[in-house]
Automatic annotation (TrEMBL):
One of its GO terms (molecular function) is hydrolase activity. CDD domains: nicotinamidase_related. The lineage of its organism: Bacteria, Pseudomonadati, Pseudomonadota, Gammaproteobacteria, Pseudomonadales. InterPro entries: Isochorismatase-like_dom, Isochorismatase-like_hydrls, Isochorismatase-like_sf. It comes from the Bacteria. This is Nicotinamidase-related amidase. Keywords: Hydrolase. It comes from Atopomonas hussainii. Coiled coil: none annotated. Residues 5-176 form the Isochorismatase-like domain. Signal peptide: none annotated.
Length: 187
């Protein structure tokens, strides 16, 4: 049985811009790097999502520095890269087919932002029948006002996005539990 795939979502330089609102989970990149190292050491599948904007002037416009992967989380040549133009990595991409061809049924999601691309991708993964796991300490987001104009901290936005996913579309866990999931799958 294939090992769970680690999906790194939008870990690009544009997510490190100082002009972005305050974020939560400042150690997320470190945790993601640790997970990535273990996944690679076990020979488990790794997939990198890259957001490429269709808006001219966006930091995620192809060819801009912001669209580049963060160097410490950049894909190896043999790792699959999915370019996407919307938050959901399954929309207008080959991701679902790529996973099915390899018999991969379990997905572990990490990256940014919890309430946008991570949540959108996790919802589709769950709806498509994948066993989906979102790693809370390996995801992060930014402060944002709610629909009523009430400012919400990044931690509040993060917690609500995870609550939206928990037990409906995905299982939310921490990085230690994600490593245990990989270890058990390798038995």
């Amino acid at each position: 049985m294939p090992l769970p795939a680690l999906l790194l979502i939008d870990m690009q330089r544009g997510m490190q811009m100082p002009s972005l609102p305050p974020r939560n989970n400042p150690q997320a990149e470190h945790v993601i790097a640790q997970l990535l190292q273990v996944w690679r050491a076990r020979g488990a599948p790794v997939v990198h999502m890259r957001h490429l904007s269709r808006t001219v002037g966006s930091v995620f416009w192809p060819g801009q520095v912001g669209a580049e992967f963060q160097p410490e989380l950049a894909p190896f040549a043999h790792e699959h890269v999915v370019d996407k133009h919307v938050p959901d990595a399954f929309v207008h991409s080959n991701l679902e087919r790529w996973l099915h061809v390899r018999g991969i049924s379990e997905l572990v999601l990490v990256g940014v932002s919890t309430n946008n691309s991570v949540e959108a991708t996790a919802r589709s993964a769950g709806n498509l029948g994948f066993a989906t796991y979102v790693v809370a300490d390996a995801t992060f987001t930014f402060a944002k006002s709610d629909f009523n104009g009430v400012p919400r901290s990044a931690e509040e936005v993060h917690a609500m996005a995870l609550a939206n996913l928990q037990d409906e579309y995905a299982h939310v866990l921490n990085s230690a539990a994600a490593l245990q999931l990989l270890a058990e799958a390798a038995i």
